[in-house]
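Subject: sequence -> structure tokens, single chain

Hey, anyone have a minute? Need the predicted structure for the following. Not urgent.
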Amino acid sequence: QVQLVESGGGLVQAGGSLRLSCAASGGTFSSYAMGWFRQAPGKEREFVAAINWSGGTTVYAGSVRGRFTISRDNAWNMVYLQMNSLKPEDTAVYYCAADPRTGSAYTRDFGSWGQGTQVTVSS
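Reply:
Had a minute. Here:
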């Protein structure tokens, strides 16, 4: 059973930056894929970014590519989302996710989720 706890959300002005963190426990963190998703009010949850087991492969949604960077530290069981050039449309609850069944960044079948952290970008 994988447990995930996000942190680092908050209020930031447009153009600013935030770094989200996700602490994982349970299972073998260094073997599975990790991802970030977000859900804005009244909208469905959407994919943001994913990273493979080693950190060597990353995948991004088109809306964040070039502004967000996903990374991981397998020594500390952590995954991060560095968000730069934030826009009001980035406002959402951000969720960390894990797929313990694969190490591929191309998975979309994440079965473990954190509780989410709120990111609010003011204009």
